[in-house]
Amino acid sequence: MTSTATASFVLDKWEPQATDEAAGTEFARVAIAKTFTGAVEGTSTVEMLTASNGTSRAYVAFERLAVSVDGRKGAFVLHHTADDSGLTLKILAGSGSGELTGISGTAEIGPDHSFTLTYEL
After folding, report:
1. How far is residue 23's CA from residue 34's CA, in Å, rounded to a whole number?
2. Do you know which Pfam families this protein is assigned to (predicted)?
3. What is the DSSP string of 6-42?
4. Mean pLDDT of 68-76
5. Given a cut of 90, is residue 18 above it in pLDDT?
6. Are 69 and 39 in contact (CB under 8 A)?
7. What angle is formed at CA 92 by the lines to CA 64 and CA 97, rounded to 5 degrees?
8. Measuring CA to CA, which residue among 27, 29, 103, 28 is closest to residue 65?
9. Most buried of the four, 60, 85, 97, 119, by CB within 10 Å?
10. Rounded (10°) CA dihedral 7, 72, 70, 65
């Protein structure tokens, strides 16, 4: 059965570091930390790689969440991919632990740091 958990989050850390620039495109690495409140409660750390230039930007990231989801405590990893066409967040298969072992699904980030997790356990 598919369930939906909604939450909000705040950014506790956003530390970009430029790593390379060539032919007008810059690569950067960003370390991020978040705190979630709501049906998803806990923290996460994110490792993000970005590429940007005057006409487009894209990123890939892995986010490790140590949270409770609808009261179930555990952890899992979200795989982010984003470019000018949109953002995709998928739970990395096999990454769930604790009471979240076996979790699968997707997530969405909305305006004002809203977070919606659509999942199966």
Report:
1. 33
2. DUF3224 (PF11528)
3. EEEEEEEEEEEEEEEEETTEEEEEEEEEEEEEESEEE
4. 97
5. no
6. yes
7. 60
8. 103
9. 119
10. 20
Tokens standing for 2?
A: 């598919």
Question: What pLDDT sits at residue 22?
Answer: 84
Q: Which CATH architecture has domain 2-120?
A: Beta Barrel (2.40)
Give the span between the Cα atoms of 42 and 10, in whole angstroms: 11
Residues 31-70 have pLDDT tens digits of 999 999 999 999 999 999 999 999 999 999 999 999 999 9
pLDDT band at 109 (very low <50, low <70, confident <90, very high): very high
Tell me the one-letter amino acid at 121: L
Query: Which pair of tokens denotes residue 29?
Result: 């690495």
Q: How far is CA 10 from CA 39, 92, 100, 103, in A?
A: 15, 23, 22, 24
The secondary structure of residue 95, as a DSSP letter, is: -
